[in-house]
Write a structure and sequence with these properties.
Elements lengths: L3 H45 L6 H14 L17 H6 L1 H4 L2 H14 L4 E7 L5 E10 L2 E6 L4 E2 L10 H4 L2 H8 L14 E2 L13 H8 L3 H4 L2 H6 L1 H31 L6 H13 L6
Helix pairs in contact: 1-5, 1-11
Length: 285
């Protein structure tokens, strides 16, 4: 007769196995989803960006498409659309007119054109987002691109400018003077690369903790890909869940064999035995 510990183990064992099966199905689905998204974006960027274009020309080609592209679909309102769906951000005029989703559309096309990019949030003094732009790595410098206004920000000499240069009030005034209608309140004194509202467990104030433990953490990875593209987020989450459940299953299997000494279903051994029985030649007596 099984002890209480053994009964609890069997319940836990089958629970982990069921969860592992579900996570494997979710992983297969998310792989297919992310693959279809990347195929779609790759075809879209191939149609926009000329073959053999330099990195700067690729940026200009994407901005030109955003500025004077074909007629776009009309949505009832941006909030009524799946705003982190790349297909929506590329095809709805409403979303291409909003700074956050316009920047997402630019980032998705830029990544598909083999450009290194990241999101940049301009913040008010009380850390609320007032505008969203992009940074692109060109010639070893992270230059600022504003997809909402469809421009690479440049100084009066025509040189592309970086975040550190735009933090200078004089440089900022000279740069935006070249962009018609650019609001002066969209300055670069306060900024972030990750929107705090998109971080899990927002109420635990993760940003201050991460800033202390890993300075510059928000610049070291492409967080916008993880937090702003749903298919990639689901893929990452399902992959980590599958890995953790698989490791937990191995540990529980070791515990059952070495400590509890109870029999359990060994999938590999049973599959091997079934395969051997199926392929073996029948005995003729």
């Amino acid at each position: 007769m099984l002890s209480v510990e053994q009964k609890l183990f069997r319940i836990s064992w089958w629970t982990v196995n069921v969860l592992l099966l579900v996570s494997l199905l979710a992983l297969a689905h998310s792989v297919a989803w992310e693959y279809s998204v990347r195929r779609y974006l790759s075809g879209f960027s191939d149609a926009i960006v000329p073959a053999g274009a330099t990195p700067e020309e690729r940026v200009e080609a994407i901005l030109s498409w955003m500025r004077v592209g074909p007629p776009r679909l009309e949505g009832s309102s941006p909030t009524g659309l799946a705003i982190r769906n790349p297909e929506n951000t590329l095809n709805y005029r409403d979303l291409l007119s909003v700074c956050g989703t316009a920047t997402n559309a630019f980032l998705n096309l830029a990544r598909s054109s083999d450009l290194q990019v990241r999101r940049l949030l301009l913040l008010t003094p009380d850390r609320n987002t007032k505008h969203v732009v992009a940074e692109v790595l060109l010639n070893g410098r992270w230059v600022v691109v504003d997809p909402t206004y469809r421009v690479i920000l440049r100084n009066p000499a025509g040189e592309m400018v970086t975040l550190s240069e735009l933090k200078n009030p004089q440089t900022f005034a000279e740069v935006i003077g070249k962009v018609p209608g650019y609001p002066t309140e969209y300055n670069y004194q306060n900024y972030a690369h990750v929107r705090e509202a998109r971080l899990p467990m927002q109420g635990l104030h993760l940003r201050p903790l991460l800033d202390r433990v890993f300075p510059g953490w928000d610049e070291k990875l492409d967080w916008s890909l993880l937090l702003e593209r749903e298919s990639f987020f689901v893929l990452t989450l399902s992959a980590w869940t599958t890995l953790i459940l698989f490791l937990l299953r191995l540990i529980m299997g070791w515990y059952a064999d070495r400590r509890l000494k109870i029999p359990r279903f060994h999938l590999r051994a049973n599959l091997a035995r079934a395969g051997a029985a199926f392929l073996a030649s029948p005995e003729i007596k």
